[in-house]
Every structure is written in structure tokens, then in C-alpha cells.
Amino acid sequence: MDRFRPLALLTAAALTLPGLTALSSAARAADADLARNGGFEAGLDGWTCTAGTTVNSPVRSGDSALQATPAGADNARCAQTVTVRPDSQYTLSGYVRGSYVHLGASGTGTTDVSTWTQSAPGWQQLTTAFRTGPATTRVTIYTHGWYGTGAYHADDITLVGPGGDTAQPPAAPTGLKTGAVTASTVALSWSPVPGATGYAVYRDGAKAQTVTGTSATIGGLSPATAYRFQVAAENEAGESARSATVTATTTEGPDGGGTDLPAHALVGYLHASFANGSGYTRLADVPDSWDVIDLAFGEPTSVTSGDIRFERCPATECPNVESDADFKAAIKAKQAAGKKVLISIGGQNGQVQLTTTAARDTFVTSVSKIIDEYGLDGLDIDFEGHSLALNADDTDFKNPRTPVIVNLISALKTLKARYGDAFVLTMAPETFFVQLGYQYYGTGPWGGQDPRAGAYLPVIHALRDDLTLLHVQDYNSGPIMGLDNQYHSMGGADFHIAMTDMLLTGFPVAGDASNVFPPLRPDQIAIGMPASANAGNGHVPPAEVTRTLDCLTKKTDCGSYATHGTWPGLRGLMTWSINWDRYGGWEFQRTFDGYFG
């Protein structure tokens, strides 16, 4: 869319050298092992694990060790947050067994670190080091396995360095109560606790969410099911005791899934970091018709850094821009009204290439920081241009090998796991990266094709169970061959019908009938259209929007293209952009409202 050096350890011999004894003794006296229950002798005390338990065999020392088993989209992460001293050096170490076992630290305030082993049939020591930032007082250490691999074991995890300042955790929260309850969500609120910097919400004894305010909505719940909730207050010293328990039972029947979207949703991009000919639109002025609002854009500090920043439009460019406080208040107001507000990464000018695991981890950290700062509901991936391209040896969309693809998939899975089932994940690829894959995939058998052809397919496929919405940009596109083996061009309903039918039917990749990209669910699909002729090539008038929806949801007025099904559960429409629709008198919004009511 437009627009480490390891920590040097002194040897025993070195300690006897003149002039070194006093310095070394002082350094050793200041250092301590800060990891709590690193040998797992007290069960999982101090650790928060998504899929972990303690076992008596195998153990590296003592009587217990951690065993954790990745499953599906869960990499079996176990973590604890440790109080540290700013601008200080730390060494993280542990022993692991298994395949693809990782040990790392996040929230360091400098460069987050991790180390891993591909295969450790016996106990293998992993060690890494980091220096905390000038304001860092808490660091999270963790271990995890990898998706689809077997159980791993960990034992004797240590974090050696200067101890943090002694402080007391806050008091336990009071006043916990339930609010609105749906088939998949429960709203909670509680009284503020003095000295708390955040709150951890527990569902049936497991941590479900961490927030900075005194309310939360827990999603991903099953209909007609009773759940128990508690909340604990947090500060730099740790976590309080948990509150009294409240119970809530979800309602009957589906209500849009864990992300709680309406059956038919209108998605729009809001120019939040720039202005153009459409003018700046304040978030509070976005009409209630818009169910998902994508803040455009978060962009990288450099193409390969993975460091995403979201800079709001300056007043010199957007004279009517609201203050940060008003912007954040508008986000909360939209969410209170049932809307989802996401950060969109990329756009025409935001090329993102996660070529290394370091860039991947930086991406996760920086995107999380944006989401947490603004209290957002999720993330939209709008990688364009040369962000994604396939290496010549990468020929199977089900088993990608290209680093920028593999690292993006890993980063998105990590973010989804971090924020839980209610995290909204959307993607806005161009047709070149998706439907063109019916004819061409990567460089092709002779190596002469554009390596970007179909490059989004492995990302979509790997994340299809986590993906909330796919809204391909059916604009700024060249002719694309549909499943009728005819080329379809922008400008009318036929193009949208053919492109959407491919997503809902599935298609052979590069013409290989034995290698089919499976269909997505209709509730995962929104059709991307320009809001007006000014917004981009491929705009269609309201009558063609209506004909597109009639054909796909009712199989009427389909024209020359014969669809392969009827999908009344099609989620809805996406447009570039809310600003351009306002510029055009809200024509796109009115068309959607008129059709779905």
C-alpha cells in the first residue's frame, strides 16, 4: 500500500596475580545466581510454563528437571522474570536435552539474546550473556522447544550477575468482578493497587494475560463453559499474591471466534503516521461502521534490522493530529465499542526482511513494544515490494527454507503465543504474492521467474490456524489467471470474484495438481478494494461491490466466472483507506452498511 562477546571469567590462577585480588573478590561478592528454582527441585515454582511439568528422570542434578512438550502453535515456553541491576553484565546458563531447545533472555534493554542446540541426546550446556540497559530492572529468562518437535528437558538454569535492589511486591488486588460475557470472551475489572506497574490475569490457575490497566477481556474461550479467574499485581520486585476467585460461564453458541469479530466486518487502514492528499483523520472521528482499524504504518529502522517503529504523524504534516493521550484514549474508546485496533507493519515504503534470527527476535520485541504501549488488539502484516522473496532451492510452500520466510513465520507464531487466542492477526498481501502462485512459484524450474511470485503462500499456510483475516489487495495488480484458466483484470466484479474464489477453493501451486494450497475458511477472508478512484488502481463502483458480494455469498449475478461454491460466511471487505473513503464522502462505508445492514 502507498506509502555478544561472552562474559570473561577470571581463572583461579588469575585471582592470585598482584593487583587483581581485590577487584576480583569485589566482583565475585557482587554476583549471585538470581534464577529462582533453576533446578526445578520445587516443581515449577517461579516459572510460568505453557506446557511444562517436572520429572524425576532424566535429571542433570538433584531430584527433578523440567520436561516440556511443544504442540501445535505452542513451543512449550517456560519463563521467569528476574530483578536485575541496570547497566550490568549477566551470564545465563543451563543444561538441556532434546531437539531445537532454546535458552534466552528478553527485556534486557539492550540486545535480547538466545542460544540453542539443534540436537542434544545427552545433557548439553547452553550459555549466553548480555548487559542490561541503563533503565532495566527486570529481565525475563526463558527456555522453549520448537513447533512440531518432541519433548525437551532443562535443568540447572542459572543467571549470574549483580542482584537487583531489594523491594517488595505489591499487595494482592481486590474488587475483581466480571463484566460482559459472550460465547468466547469474559470481561474483567478490579481495583487499582498502589505501587503496581501491571497485572497478571489467571484463568483456571494459568496466566492468561498481562495488562497495565485494571481491566482485561479474556478471549479464546469455549461456549457454555465455566471458568475461574484471579488477578495478581506486579512491580519490579515481582508478583503479589492472587486475588479472590471469580467464576463466569460463557454463553451458548458461536459469536465470531476468539477474536470476537462480527459475522460481517469492515476493515480499513487509517493513515496514522503520515498525511497525503486525503488528509489526516483523527481516530476518534472514524465512524462505528469500521470493525477493524489498521494503523498505517509501523516501519523498520532499516530493511534488515527487524526493528519496527511507529511514529505518529507530526503536527507540521498533520496540523489536526491529536495528542498521544487523546490517540490512546480513542483506541480504548473504539475497543470499548467492540472494535479492533491493529498496528500494520510495512506498506509501500516499509520494506521488512528478517534475514537473521537476530532480526526476527528484534521484530518480536519491537512490535510487542508498540502493541503494549498503545494497548492494541493485534497485528497486520502488509509486506510489499521486496520484503518477501523465495530462494532458488525453496520450492515447497509447505516446507519453506528461505530465511526471510522462516523467520517471519516464527516471529508471528511467537507473537500469537505471547498474546493468546484473542490476538488479531491479519495479512494484506498483493495478488502477485498469492494468486499468482497458481501459475508461478519462486524462480521456477528453470530459474528465470521473479522469486517473489507466490512468496506469501508459505506464510499464510503455516499460520492458517492463527490467521484471523486475509485481505488480499485486489488492486494495483496486473492480470491474474483464475481457476478458469482465464486472465482477469481489475476494474470490475469479475476480478474480485475470481481472486476470492481461489482463496476459498484452494489451488494447485505452479500448476502442480499434487501440490495444492488448501482453501481458507470464509470467515478468514475479507476482500481488499480501494475506497475511491483516488486511492489506487482497481477501484470499482458500488454496484460492482454489490455484485461481488451477491455472487460469493448467494451465487447470484456471477457474470462470466463460475465460482466453486457459495460462502454466506464470507467475513467482509477491506479498503485502502478510511482516509480516502472520508475524502470520497464515505461511499465505500455506505455500500458495506447498505449490504450487510
TrEMBL record:
Entry's PROSITE patterns?
Answer: FN3 (PS50853), GH18_1 (PS01095), GH18_2 (PS51910)
- SUPFAM superfamilies found in the cross-reference section: (Trans)glycosidases (SSF51445), Fibronectin type III (SSF49265), Galactose-binding domain-like (SSF49785)
Q: Where is the signal peptide?
A: 1-29
The record's InterPro entries line, in alphabetical order, gives: CenC_carb-bd (IPR003305), Chitinase_II/V-like_cat (IPR011583), FN3_dom (IPR003961), FN3_sf (IPR036116), Galactose-bd-like_sf (IPR008979), GH (IPR017853), Glyco_hydro18_cat (IPR001223), Glyco_hydro_18_chit_AS (IPR001579)
- Residues forming the GH18 domain are 264-597
What EC identifiers does the entry list?
3.2.1.14
Domain Fibronectin type-III per the UniProt entry, residue ranges: 172-253
Q: Would the keyword Membrane turn up in this protein's UniProt record? A: no
Presence of the UniProt keyword Hydrolase in the record = yes
**A Pfam family assignment:** fn3
What GO biological process, any one, is recorded here?
polysaccharide catabolic process
Which stretches are transmembrane?
none
What UniProt keywords apply to this chain's record, in alphabetical order?
Carbohydrate metabolism, Glycosidase, Hydrolase, Polysaccharide degradation, Signal
The entry lists its GO molecular-function terms as: chitin binding; endochitinase activity
**Family, as annotated:** Belongs to the glycosyl hydrolase 18 family. Chitinase class II subfamily.
Name the record gives this protein:
chitinase
Question: Whose protein is this, by species?
Answer: Streptomyces ferrugineus
